[in-house]
Fold:
Amino acid sequence: MYSEDDLLPISALQHLLFCERQCALIHIEQVWDENRFTAEGRVMHERVHEEGAASRGGVRIERGVALRSLRLGLTGKADTVEFHRAGEGPWRPYPVEYKRGKPKPDDSDKVQLCAQALCLEEMLGVEVPAGAVFYGQPRRRLDVAFGEKLRKTTEAAALKLHEMIAGGVTPPPCNDKRCRNCSLLDRCLPRAVRHSVDRYMGRVLADAEHPDEEKPQ
Structure:
């Protein structure tokens, strides 16, 4: 169990699974720049949170729900939690996360949503079997079932996040297609840093292979 002082943002899990260097720049080095994509995402979240609570048939809708898990060491806010009720049974939470773009090829959005569900289960003592991610470009929901595999992936990501933050080490850049739309591109400098790292490692390997050669001064 973690203490209140040890809690890390749920959103950092999405950063971690998308790019570990981006996660470290934001959450270790406290670096943040906004571009058009992050601004559009922020505005979408703000609008959702401002809509307030509502009821539609057998569904109660709460916005901007505060979340916490001492087991995983996470805290954050759910964009929307729908509480569904069938007959006289208990209300069942159904978290909905809003994203401005398209569904991603990785599980980063699903893990972020699953972490919200695990927080709700711990806080409310009820099972949360599923939720959804609403994507702005296709303007539709992607239903997500919180199966055993996704839950284990989420728990492992939370542990890795705590270990990385505690270690305080920023990983080297990847310099791949993920970098193109990253708001931290000018801070990360993936091409320049990657080139410097590769050149340094080349010298280290050359020295290991020819330790007795005289080095230029």
User: Anything to note?
Assistant: The CA atoms of residues 59 and 84 lie 5 Å apart.
